[in-house]
Amino acid sequence: MSTEDRKVKLVLGFAGDRQEVELTIPDEEPTPWDLDTKFSVVGGKHARVDALAKVTGKAKYTHDINLPGMLFGGFARCPHAAAEIVSIDTADALLVPGVKAAIPMTQDRVRFAGQPVCALAATTRQALAAGIAKVNAKYTVLPHAARTDLALKDSAPVVHRNQQSNKSGTGAPRNGEAVAAALQQSAKVVRATATTQVQTHACFETHSTVAQWEGDKLTLWTSTQATFGVRSQVADALRIPEANITVISDFMGGGFGSKFGAGYFTPIAARLAKECGAPVKIALNRREEHTDTGNRPDSIQEMALGVTTDGKLGPYSVTITGTPGIGRGAGARNPMIYDFPRDVRAVEQVEVATNAGPQAAMRAPGHPQGSFALETIMDLAAEAIGMDPLEFRTRNDSNSVRLAQYADGAKRIGWEQRRKNGSATGRFRRGLGVASATWGGLGGPQAEVDCKIFRDGSVQVRNGAQDIGTGTKTVLGVVVAEELGLPLEKIAVSMGNTSDPTGPASGGSTTAPSLAPAARQAAYLAGRELKQLAAKHLGVSADKLVMKAGRISTPGSQGMTFEEACRLIQSGEISARGKRRSNFRTFKDGVAGVQFAEVEVDCEYGLVRVVRIVALQDAGIIINRLQAENQVNGGVIQGLAYALMEERVMDRQLGHQMNADFEMYKVPGTKDMPEIECVLYDIANGGNNTSVCGIGEPTCIPTASAIAGAIHNAIGARVLSLPMTADKVLAALAAREKGR
Amino acid sequence: MQQDSSPPGQVSRRGFLKGAGAAVAATGVLGAANLPTTPRNTEPATLKADEVVPLRFELNGKQVETKVRTGYTLLETLRDHLDTTGPKLACDYGACGACTVLLDGKAVNSCLVLAVECTGRKVESVEGLAQDGKLHPIQAAFIAEDAMQCGFCTPGMLMSCKGLLDRNPHPSRAETADALAGNICRCGTYFSIFKAVDRVAKAPKEGK
Lengths: 740, 208
Known about the structure:
The complex is a heterodimer of chains A (740) and B (208). By secondary structure, chain A is α+β, with helices and mostly antiparallel strands. Helices cover 26% and strands 26% of the residues of chain A. In chain A, the strands form 8 sheets. In chain A, strands 5-7-3-15-12-13-14 form a 7-stranded mixed sheet, with helices on both faces. Chain B is of the alpha+beta class and 208 residues long. Chain B has 2 domains: 13-125, Roll (Ubiquitin-like (UB roll)), CATH 3.10.20; 137-202, [2Fe-2S]-binding domain (DNA polymerase, domain 1), CATH 1.10.150.120. In chain B, strands 2-1-5-3-4 form a 5-stranded mixed sheet, with helices on one face. In chain B, helix 3 packs across helix 6 (190-202). At the A-B interface, helix 1, helix 3 and helix 15 of A face helix 2, helix 3, helix 4, helix 5 and helix 6 of B.
């Protein structure tokens, strides 16, 4: 402990579980906010700081960048799901009026239908399309397997060269036999296989980049979740210094995990721009967005669970099989959340290569698919021992936040009215279900924020990472406003330009919890400098001064306005940089959530209508209640779509995606909306000076599982496969009738 | 689907659309309000494919004169040639509503309307919503209710809302859901959008 360090006492947790901790804080850190902090700005309902730009059409997305002489770039793509490239002849394409460049891609093999083989740039969209049509590519077509079920067959062609089989993975778990033996000793054993579909991100703004050279300096406008990641990847790809590249993402139209990288399209946009001596815009079309920008892997999860008659979880084994397409990393997170005994738990992950576009992280990667299977076996186990599924969960979950949420949510959804599974009769049957979630979202270092206070009283906050629509700019504005005792409107926030201080990729719900503490520290340090000027002027000690309600004053009200203090700045401005420290002690190692669903099933047509969702979510200390609720609702809606609507359909014969559009790939609209009640839990989680946690991801995890439980309750049969479309609901009903 | 009433031998408007590669099978997912309006002009179309023709129409209260190829959609004309980038290109076949503008006051997908179809007509995009530096009430309501996340659907969503509110100043929740059924928000901000429309619908009229 250096002489400048100080000890602070904090209260973490929430009303239902208060925890006192003592921490040593370095001099440059503000005292962390805790459960007892009284806020003026934090936790209010604030319009987002870039809302005006968004409602007036002034917000410029990458798609909207129009530069003088700009060319349109795009790709010729292989129609075959597997092929050797014999030759790519661009001579005819280059003869098309308006086509300025055609650069064949370097690979010699195509492994999924729609893989790009040649990039072109042209003066108009029409010339580009005509040029693409004239690229003469010759292929030797190879056998393919574009779906998990096809790639698992003994006779299936092997997708990757130099591999014996399409399967890879963790191998059989070492304790597999011990778990099997333990299962045999269990009072009750439940077995089930649950399957989930491939979901695509379907970002509204397709993946896109505009590349412009000025000498050896490259500017890239790109729709990305990682401005700094794009900069380094493009530097590597083009072998140019990172210092020569500026990446700009002022506004971006959705990523959901698919926009972490530069992709193939960004380096090639830069190469086309160089070759043509003109800026080039590449914006993928809707089909390309579905087939070639990532997806959530599917899964087949074979489970066996032993339970005691009094409802305690016992041995558990699960084999999870899924496809990352031609990419890597298909696993599902199962089990999680509940208190499974660790020594009798066996998990095997099997990855199946298929001739389909590579997977990409998608909103809580691995969790929604794992949740669907896990909550299925939980419900089936509860049914097998004749226990209420909510009671069964509370007996096996030791998280104090979720225990509070179970009780709270049960009241809100009317759980006590819940009938026994399958006891409803008639054509329309209602049911209730429950499911849980856990997520990290605590953030960490590699984030710096600048805060400047100017003589005219204006305040500026700058960071070079992106706001992907989650409201990060507003979060930083609120944190700085709170620290400086100003209203939010006084703070100008700038993000999305790599000329500004470094920031994280927007993944794992870490952007806000990584940046907010750095922003607060920057404001704290800048404010401290301003206080010193005010103290000198007022003839008081700077420690006695508080910044609140636009004033800098002592508790005895001796003071001045913020603007008056700023006039004391001699020249230029006060400028401070905040740096994100590693996490200190937290209340929990992640955020907790529970969701309840009520559905109505039309047993004649098999249609499921979600009537109501109650979403209870821990989100650390809530910074902006308006945005937090909006984001929870958004997660629930994507979860609902995963439950009932979205599914990539791959054809067996050609290996094409048959629904790479917005008509047959169904994303939810206004007519699909249930009632959603969002209940935010303000939790002082600690870990950083703001207790901010990210909530982009956790709320999309349990929705499909809660809906599945509600359908089960309504019709007395389990639908074991997502999406739970009418045909599957009717099949489950028919199987139940047959079994009677 | 609209019936094609062009005489034989003439290039029809729908033919243009099909020729331009726009999907016309999207009716199932469109809100009724987003269907292209029946052309006001009833005389037979005489334009040829891929000619360059002069175009004059009113865009956000100002007369615009330009030249377009006959195959250009209104959307690409606005975005690529008139730097009016509020309307977004997200599907290019009328399935998502991101490109919604008002054509003579009715909400249409501008990717399903040829630019030449707009001759002499009135086009409003999100850029024209605010008048004399004052936000339209639906814009103010979108801000107040946080009816956006990434904001990419917002310009189209706002125009569908305006189209609705102009013809039905006090819509029910169900009427709002119907009118916005052709506008996708991938971030899932529908509830905030409903609340924004409710806010305008319930606000007392100015001057009363």
